[in-house]
TrEMBL record:
Cofactor annotation comment: Binds 1 pyridoxal phosphate per subunit.
Subcellular location per the Swiss-Prot or TrEMBL entry: Cytoplasm
Protein name: Phosphoserine aminotransferase
Binding site for pyridoxal 5'-phosphate: 76-77, 100, 148, 167, 190, 232-233
Quaternary structure (record): Homodimer.
Family under the similarity heading: Belongs to the class-V pyridoxal-phosphate-dependent aminotransferase family. SerC subfamily.
Species this chain originates from: Maribacter polysiphoniae
Coiled coil (UniProt feature): none
GO-annotated cellular components: cytoplasm
Keyword Endoplasmic reticulum tagged: no
One Pfam family linked to the record: Aminotran_5
Metabolic or biological pathway, per its Swiss-Prot or TrEMBL entry: Cofactor biosynthesis; pyridoxine 5'-phosphate biosynthesis; pyridoxine 5'-phosphate from D-erythrose 4-phosphate: step 3/5; Amino-acid biosynthesis; L-serine biosynthesis; L-serine from 3-phospho-D-glycerate: step 2/3
One GO term of the biological process aspect: pyridoxine biosynthetic process
Length: 354
């Protein structure tokens, strides 16, 4: 039986994507060759790479606006370093909203002065800092739009006249934003886009080439742009599967359509968390993430009963991250409303038992 997969990433992808990807493993485009044995320079794969890059820009509404899309390797974690390598000349600002922002900030400190413009560490990152001041003279401001571990999400983005960089690993393609307010967006594929192994970087070309240091080729966005994201052998399977997922999203009606579904899923789960006395939410209500819902049992003695119930219902991946504890339900694009319904039913059953 197919499980209801609430994993934080890698995570559920559309069933039709699994099917098409497995077909391509056996026979890519009727070529008599597997996707993973053909040359990445072959016409068929070059087309895949181009299509994936174009779909990413199209879905974000960034076509023809001076942006380039790249499918790189090294995970979002390598972007923590590459962003600073390519953009940090003297000082940068970071909003610290959780584990991933903290890691990004730590890497940037290797390259220049880093100012933490705000932090919610004082309350174990259960809220998004507001009303912070952005000092003058920054090379860029770095934000994390969705905090996968703590279950918080930025609803508003500061208006700045410096490059705005955003780690969107766990909510890219999930909600409508004015994506052109960002100058560089990066996201590991393994949540809303595909399997682990590739990272989408969308960068406005005119912010590059301004730092004085020499950049090693593999870490230089300009080099990857000049080679159409084929400077070295790309992660062919991850890029192909990402292309299939982006195609699926386009056919569904794009980000506007998926946002509506994501809203319904989040409302269903959060209203259960709020109405059911057996559970309590972790993140502050106004900052709750529509992608990752974090919650606890009000009575920890009920843990064994609840764990047995959700596992019996075919649910997978509900345990919270060790730095928060409790539970985390990740409701990425491909998770169905029906799966959230199954979880909510289990939670209601707990109320009857509890
Ligand atoms: C918001 C965010 N940023 C960065 C990362 C790190 O991604 P990767 O494992 O691809 O390096 C994650 C991983 O879950 C994440 O959720």
């Amino acid at each position: 039986m197919k499980k209801h997969n609430f994993s934080a990433g890698p995570c559920v992808l559309p069933q039709e994507v699994f099917l098409k990807a497995s077909e391509a493993i056996m026979d890519f485009n009727g070529s008599g060759l597997s996707l993973i044995e053909v040359s990445h320079r072959s016409k068929d794969f070059v087309e895949v790479m181009e299509k994936a890059r174009n779909l990413a820009l199209e879905l974000l509404g960034l076509e023809g606006k001076g942006y380039k899309a790249l499918f790189l390797q090294g995970g979002a974690s390598l972007e923590f370093l590459m962003v600073a390598y390519n953009l940090l000349e003297t000082k940068a600002g970071y909003l610290n909203t959780g584990t991933w922002s903290s890691k990004a900030l730590k890497e940037a400190r290797l390259f220049g002065e880093v100012i933490e413009v705000g932090s919610s560490k004082d309350e174990n990152f259960n809220y998004i800092p507001k009303g912070y001041t952005i000092p003058d003279g920054l090379d860029y401001l770095h934000l994390t739009s969705n905090n996968t571990i703590f279950g918080t999400q930025l609803k508003k983005f500061p208006k700045v006249d410096i490059p705005l960089v955003c780690d969107m690993s766990s909510d890219i393609f999930s909600r409508q934003l004015h994506f052109s307010q960002f100058d560089l967006i990066y996201a590991g594929a393994q949540k809303n886009m595909g399997p682990a192994g590739t990272t989408l970087v969308v960068v406005k070309e005119d912010i590059l080439g301004k730092v004085s240091r020499e950049i090693p080729s593999m870490l230089d966005y300009k080099v990857h742009i000049s080679k159409d994201s084929m400077f070295n052998t790309p992660a062919v399977f991850a890029v192909y599967t990402s292309m299939l997922t982006l195609e699926w999203l386009k056919n569904l009606g794009g980000i506007a359509a998926i946002e509506e579904i994501n809203e319904k899923k989040a409302q269903l789960l959060y209203s259960e968390i709020d109405l059911n006395p057996v559970f309590e939410g972790f993140a502050k209500k106004e900052d709750r993430s529509n992608m990752n819902a974090t919650f606890n049992l009000t009575d920890s003695k009920l843990k064994d009963t609840f764990d047995a119930l959700w596992k019996e219902a075919g649910i997978n991946g509900l345990n919270g991250h060790r730095s928060v504890g409790g539970y985390r339900a990740s409701m990425y694009n491909a998770l169905s409303l029906e799966s959230v319904g199954v979880l909510v039913d289990v939670m209601s059953e707990m109320e009857r038992k509890g």
